[in-house]
């Protein structure tokens, strides 16, 4: 009987050791470049961006849905770190006709300035104009979302001027 308790004790110690070796250290709002293997850059500030946002005027409708993805692994084996990411989908309509949608390439981003005024920076792929852009999102004092899209210097075979979606607008939260 003593032997069974010893074996059970050894098994419990092994299980505890194993689970603690797989645990990630949760570090709030730390830059990815400063993480050590096994650390997790938890972002407490992304929730403010999460939800459905919309911009509408007489002829234009732009709807944006943003979702926080938690604990995304980056790296391999013993060098893996974990981070949070904001993913988005959008639909742009003009006069009731869908002009552009992110079904093929969703918006993907991470925090750009964690300790500053907190813009979010997302990658934007404009398939129609064959170019990439960078979207900066800032929440205003009125809890609206400012969208600013600028061109990225990525070479495509062909490149067309401008974007197929608005480059500057203020969206209101709808959900």
From TrEMBL:
<dbReference type="Pfam" id="PF20448">
    <property type="entry name" value="DUF6705"/>
</dbReference>
<dbReference type="InterPro" id="IPR046551">
    <property type="entry name" value="DUF6705"/>
</dbReference>
<protein>
    <recommendedName>
        <fullName>DUF6705 domain-containing protein</fullName>
    </recommendedName>
</protein>
<feature type="signal peptide">
    <location>
        <begin position="1"/>
        <end position="23"/>
    </location>
</feature>
<feature type="domain" description="DUF6705">
    <location>
        <begin position="6"/>
        <end position="102"/>
    </location>
</feature>
<keyword id="KW-0732">Signal</keyword>
């Amino acid at each position: 009987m003593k032997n069974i308790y010893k074996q059970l004790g050894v098994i419990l110690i092994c299980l505890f050791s194993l689970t603690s070796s797989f645990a990630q250290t949760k570090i709030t709002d730390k830059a990815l470049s400063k993480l050590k293997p096994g650390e997790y850059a938890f972002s407490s500030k992304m929730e403010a961006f999460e939800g459905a946002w919309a911009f509408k005027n007489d002829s234009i409708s732009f709807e944006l849905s943003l979702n926080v993805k938690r604990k995304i692994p980056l790296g391999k084996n013993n060098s893996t770190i974990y981070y949070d990411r904001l993913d988005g989908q959008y639909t742009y309509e003009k006069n009731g006709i869908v002009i552009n949608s992110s079904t093929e390439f969703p918006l993907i981003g991470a925090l750009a300035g964690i300790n500053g005024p907190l813009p979010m920076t997302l990658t934007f792929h404009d398939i129609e104009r064959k170019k990439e852009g960078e979207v900066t999102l800032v929440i205003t004092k009125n809890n609206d979302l400012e969208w600013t899209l600028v061109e990225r210097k990525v070479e495509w075979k062909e490149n067309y001027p401008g974007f197929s979606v608005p480059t500057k607008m203020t969206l209101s939260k709808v959900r």
